[in-house]
């Protein structure tokens, strides 16, 4: 599993796993939280006075794997946005 910043291409976290279990997904996202949470909270505190839809929070994008969503909600609920359900595989249009 890898987490990469879309602007700077900096690798936030990486974890080599055999299976994407709930505990491994939690461990992976916890690694991100340990290294970047002060930046996330700083952004959240500057945006929390705005309406929920107008907030410019950090956004995580992942595939439709449910263990990511449950782990994300435990660690980053309300302080980040989750773009959940992005299909990783590309579809051929012919």
Amount of helix: 25-40%
**CA-atom Rg in angstroms:** 14 Å
Percent of sequence in beta strands: 15-25%
Mean pLDDT: 89
Distance from first to last alpha carbon:
32 Å
SSE series: EEHEHE
Give the low-confidence spans.
none
Query: What is the overall silhouette?
Result: globular
Question: How do the strands of the widest beta sheet line up side by side?
Answer: 1-2
Whole-number tally of structural domains: 1
The total strand number stands at: 4
Q: From the helix content, strand content and strand pairing, which structural class follows?
A: alpha+beta
Largest sheet: 2 strands, antiparallel
Q: What is the helix tally?
A: 2
Quick summary:
This protein has about 90 residues and is an alpha+beta fold.
List the helices and strands and how they pair.
Layout: E1 2-4, E2 11-14, H1 22-47, E3 59-62, H2 66-76, E4 81-84
Parallel strand pairs: 3-4
Antiparallel strand pairs: 1-2
Give structural notes.
- This protein is of the alpha+beta class.
- The chain has one domain (2-84).
- 39% of the residues lie in helices and 16% in strands.
- The strands form two sheets. A two-stranded antiparallel ribbon has the order 1-2. A two-stranded parallel ribbon has the order 3-4.
- Helix 1 crosses helix 2.
- The model has no long low-confidence stretch (mean pLDDT 89).
């Amino acid at each position: 599993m890898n987490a990469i910043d879309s602007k700077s291409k900096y690798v936030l976290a990486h974890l080599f796993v055999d299976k994407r279990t709930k505990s491994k997904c939690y461990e992976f996202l916890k690694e991100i939280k340990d290294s970047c949470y002060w930046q996330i909270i700083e952004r959240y505190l500057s945006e929390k006075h705005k309406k929920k839809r107008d907030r410019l929070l950090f956004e995580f994008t992942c595939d439709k794997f449910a263990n990511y969503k449950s782990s994300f909600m435990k660690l980053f609920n309300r302080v980040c946005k989750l773009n959940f359900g992005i299909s990783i595989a590309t579809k051929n249009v012919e």
